[in-house]
Amino acid sequence: MDFAIHLVQQATQRVFLYAHKSNILHAQAALTGLTVSPDESILMVVPLFHVLAWGTPYFAPMFGLKLVMPGLQMEGEPLFDLIEKEKVTLAFGVPTVWMGLLSYCRENNKILSSVRNTVIGGSALSLAILKEFDEVHDVNVIQGWGMTEMSPLGTSNFLTEEMKQMSKEDRYAVQLKQGRPMYGIELKVVDDSGKELPKDGESQGHLLVRGPWVLQKYFKSETDAVDKDGWFDTGDISVLDQDGYMTIKDRAKDVIKSGGEWISSIDLENAAVGHPEVAEACVVGIPHPKWDERPILFIVTNSGEPIDKQSILDFLASKVAKWWLPDEIIFLKELPHGATGKLQKFELRDEYNNYYTGS
């Protein structure tokens, strides 16, 4: 089998080598899984070293589509101007970038007139972003999920006829899920012993994937990264529902265990972002002498200045369980992000690791 001439190296020092066959299969599946039309003008607001960008440079030329690249100009105003100039219809990006674009549009009474769909990945989609795209700009949001080891697409949550008949509230509830597996990809969720869990939308466990563009082993590794049946452990904690939709509850390393119960940092973050004065939120589990771990909520406000903490707790009280409420809220000017826009939780975890113990 011929292999792609490029190698991809993560910060973990794991190196990947991709087969041409794998890239072609993945690109063909992406055209249907992301409902790409033959008249698209595609904006990629992601670096080419980010997994969200890998499939697009293959499937866009395959379909004869225009690719629009913003370079380093990823702030709200230049992005909006580029979208208008190139009549972008399909935009790829992470939530952090879209928050800046939406904020610019909101403050300057601008509407994204040409965009039909945006594909969001890299971090979980919040209800606030979903509603603003839909209700203000008439842009459909397609949430996708994948990873480096999957080239990257695993699931897609494109708009179906069934979803079009739903109330907005019900449709949003579906769109906030990471979606159903792309054709060729299989998913299952297992418990700690490896037993498959029911697809009931509630039983959460370790997400395993299998498919023709899922890696078998890391470059130059002597052992397979998959089990004897070809299943790869993604490191995500997830649930599957009866319709096949998958929801990421957390990364295994980020889920918070407090008093023997699990708290999803993603769900708590998305609830906090719904507060009208919160621009961005990050939740980290910190060691606690009594409860094992407790959540700390880090917030960047729209104004950049602290606001009343109790107003945030009151807002969250109707959206999450009482014992999920953070023990502390810390206001920051900005949250740590990597080059792709993803939150770097490990930086906050390291800095505040002794917050409760005082050691």
- Summarize model confidence as the mean pLDDT: 88
Largest sheet, if any?
7 strands, mixed
CATH topology term of the largest domain = Rossmann fold
What portion of residues belong to β-strands?
25-35%
The radius of gyration over CA amounts to 20 Å
Give the strand order, joined by hyphens, for the main sheet. Answer: 4-3-5-6-7-8-9
Q: What is the CATH-assigned architecture of the largest domain?
A: 3-Layer(aba) Sandwich
Low-confidence stretches: 3-7
DSSP helix fraction: 25-40%
Q: Tell me, what's the shape?
A: globular
Secondary-structure element string: EEHEHHEHEHEHEEHHEEEEEEEHEEHEH
CATH class of the largest domain: Alpha Beta
Offer a quick outline of the entry.
With 359 residues, the protein is an alpha/beta fold.
Describe this structure in words.
The chain is of the alpha/beta class. It has 2 domains: 179 residues, ANL, N-terminal domain (Rossmann fold); 96 residues, GMP Synthetase, Chain A, domain 3, CATH 3.30.300.30. It is 27% helix and 28% strand. The chain contains 11 helices and 18 strands. The strands form 5 sheets. It has a 7-stranded mixed β-sheet, sandwiched between helices. A 4-stranded antiparallel β-sheet has the order 10-11-12-13. The protein has a 3-stranded mixed β-sheet with strand order 16-17-18, with helices on both faces. A hairpin with a 6-residue loop joins strand 7 and strand 8. It is globular and about 55 Å long. 37% of the residues are buried. The N terminus is likely disordered.
